[in-house]
Amino acid sequence: MLTTITVCDTCKREGWNAESGQTDGEILASLIERAADGLDGITVRRHSCLMGCSSACNVALQADGKMAYTLGGFDPTSDAADGIVEYASLHAREKTGIVAYRDWPEAINGHFVTRHPPLPDASADPDD
Fold this sequence. Notes:
Elements lengths: L2 E6 L15 H13 L5 E6 L11 E4 L5 E4 L6 H16 L18 E5 L12
Parallel strand pairs: 1-2
Antiparallel strand pairs: 1-3, 3-4, 4-5
Helix pairs in contact: 1-2
Pfam families: DUF1636 (PF07845)
InterPro entries: DUF1636
Protein name: Metal-binding protein
């Protein structure tokens, strides 16, 4: 099943330098896009403001019928991007989206902000 990585492209970490020409979120998004290029089960999109400014850089991982996660506080580095993509690949393979802690890439430890249960199936009969 397809897991979507949504990257906040407006994230700016404390001390961000406007003269760099890119936000920290744009840099992280580019690195994640590069790391995910050609992988099955993963798609990447950018979105302006995930409203997690106090823990920038932020990403969300989502898939139909699976647990969803928001992660933040990343440095915009290739190590962070590789860890996010590796975790998203594991998320894509798990039926529930829940990845065993022992399998988490080191780069994502300490970066979980929230998790959200999947939305109820709109086609399901509420009386069942």
